[in-house]
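$ run holo --ligand "cobalt (II) ion" --emit tokens
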Amino acid sequence: MLLLNLDHVAVAVADLDEAVEGFRSRYGVEPAYREVVEEQGVEEAMIPVGGSYVQLLQPLGPDTPVGRFLERRGEGLHHVAYAVPDIEAALAHLAAEGAELIDAEPRIGGRGARIAFVHPRGGNGILTELVELA
Ligand code: CO
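-- output --
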């Protein structure tokens, strides 16, 4: 099986404290994790929802992928992430299917997970992240 579950839905936000407070006041939920991921240029908070998360992403600066996304499009849905049991096998399968891989090799993301992004082109316009949890 290629996909285990929906790991998270990521939302680009301008102000992480404000976004976390919004989830707290509207839905009564607290972040399970919050961390700076320098390699991706973000500070992220993971809001647990059932077995999945909403990942709130605040860019560390304007010249980062999420910073440029906010500049172009404003706050909103940034990507969808699926948990996979074997990220190399998933990437090999996707490459063979002609998917446009942003990361040919996995890198380390939040929670120490191994992650890789797949371009929205050919993916119904959705930036997709694969996550192999540590
Ligand atoms: Co993500």
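-- notes --
Residues 8, 10, 55, 79, 81, 129 surround cobalt (II) ion (CB under 6 Å).
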